[in-house]
Design goal:
five-stranded antiparallel sheet, mainly beta, single chain
Length: about 230
């Protein structure tokens, strides 16, 4: 496509592509195949992309791979191991190992350490940690993150994410746990406790401000993060 603009009785032509009207190779709008050109791959990699296989996550980095003939093999991705003869006898990085790696990379099966489940924060199906509380990547909090208190709408700054349960941490001076505090009713008692400060207003340095404890699910992550060298794990 070209843009012709009058300029002092003449015209200036600006090309939207090359002179032949073809898009350059790096143009993101250029049609391209989703899978690689298998003619450029070695045999095992090509078969990993093209052969029918069903991959099922078993947990702890292990996956069952079933082929079109109904034979199944178990892949241990962290150990780069497979029960198939090609790997066990020949010591090759077999098509099953490669297929699992492809599906993990494409987000079709969970990566090692993750399982498919329901996120406690957004209540959507997602890949969540296998052993830790089930928060998806978008809902998980880290020190330095800004979050919104779902109950009040206030902005808070995450200082520390603990491994302690909300029903095991006492709110200072109340004799009640974080889970039992009246405004935390309805949030899971086994939520990890998150310590926060209120970052806006006041003159005290963030590191000296009073910390408040919340159940993780009560805090909604924001897109922004506020990082301060003086705030973090003590």
């Amino acid at each position: 496509m070209t843009d012709t603009t009058a300029d002092g009785g003449g015209s200036t032509t600006r090309a939207g592509g090359d002179s032949g009207g073809h898009r350059r190779t790096g143009d993101p709008r250029r049609p391209r195949a989703l899978a690689p050109d298998t003619s450029r791959l070695d045999g095992r990699s090509a078969r990993a992309w093209t052969e029918p296989m069903a991959v099922t996550a078993l947990g702890e980095g292990r996956y069952e791979v079933e082929n079109s003939e109904g034979r199944t093999y178990v892949v241990d991705l962290p150990e780069s191991d497979c029960t198939c003869p090609d790997h066990r006898i020949r010591g090759e990085s077999c098509k099953h190992l490669r297929r699992v790696a492809i599906e993990v990379t494409r987000g079709q099966v969970p990566a090692p350490g993750k399982v498919r489940g329901t996120c406690r924060g957004c209540e959507r199906e997602a890949f969540v940690p296998e052993d830790d509380p089930a928060f998806c990547r978008a809902c998980r909090l880290e020190p330095g993150d800004l979050a919104t208190d779902r109950e009040t709408g206030d902005a808070v700054l995450v200082v520390r994410v603990t491994d302690e349960r909300a029903d095991a941490v006492e709110v200072d001076g109340t004799g009640r746990s974080v889970a039992d505090y009246e405004t935390n009713d309805g949030y899971p008692a086994d939520d990890p406790v998150v310590e926060v400060v209120y970052p806006f207003g006041g003159n005290e340095p963030l590191a000296e401000r009073r910390r408040y404890s919340f159940p993780h699910s009560r805090l909604l992550p924001r897109d922004a993060a506020l990082v301060d060298a003086g705030v973090g794990d003590a």
